[in-house]
Amino acid sequence: MKRYACVCLMAAALWSNCAAAAEWNVDTGKSRLGFIGSQGGSPFEGKFTRWSAKIDFDPANPASAKVAVEIDMSSAQTGDAQKDQSLPGADWFDAKTFPKARFEASGFKPKGANAFEAPGTLTIRGMGKSVTLPFSLDIKGGLAHAKGRLDLIRTDFGVGQGEWKSGDMVALQVAVVFELEAAAKP
Q1: Which DSSP category does 160 fall into?
Q2: Which DSSP letter does residue 145 get?
């Protein structure tokens, strides 16, 4: 009986150490979550200044990974006062009605070398769509660096209403881009 209890305690200790090693703290100060669009044929970039990410990832078991990212849509900034004022409005992100966007994924798919895909759901303006997020991931000494880009059609998520819906002035194709720095939780 003592032997069984000892084995159970050792297994529980190992399990808790594995679970802790799978959790990552994202350093939002060293990370960037942004977007790339085009207006009148001229590209522009922006970023979100308020967002959070919860990442559980064990490099030895990428299929068990879980990611949840929440974005404050009123925090979009492009450096252009007119765009920055318009983006949270009803024609674009409608941040008053839909204050948060969300990306959730379960399971990373290795694609060779340091490349992965994260199939998940992206929800913007209350519209959730299945997407596959390609990204690269490098881990060195408990520090992770991930970088990715997701191309999408903004109107699939209701972004761009009224005169902005056609894509004549603002391109329909946009990219969500990110570069994350994270440390393994102790």
Answers
A1: S
A2: E
Q: Which residues contact 82 (CB under 8 A, 6 or more apart)?
A: none
Q: How far is CA 70 from CA 17, 54, 103, in A?
A: 27, 9, 7
Question: How many contiguous H segments (helices) and E segments (strands) does the chain have?
Answer: 2, 12
pTM score of the predicted model: 0.85
User: Does residue 54 lie in a domain region?
Assistant: yes
The CATH number of residue 112's host domain is 2.40.128.110
d(CA 118, CA 168): 32
Residues contacting 91, CB < 8 A, separation 6+: 160, 161, 162, 164
**pLDDT tens digits, one per residue of 149-167:** 999 999 999 999 999 999 9
Q: Which pLDDT score, from 0 to 100, does residue 17 have?
A: 38
Within a domain: 104: yes
Residue type, 28: T
What type of residue sits at position 167?
Answer: G
Instruction: Name the residue among 26, 32, 58 with its Cα closest to residue 45.
Output: 32
Query: The domain containing residue 39 runs over which residues?
Result: 24-184
**In this structure, is residue 37 part of a structural domain?**
yes
**8-state DSSP, 81:** H
Q: How many domains does the chain have?
A: 1
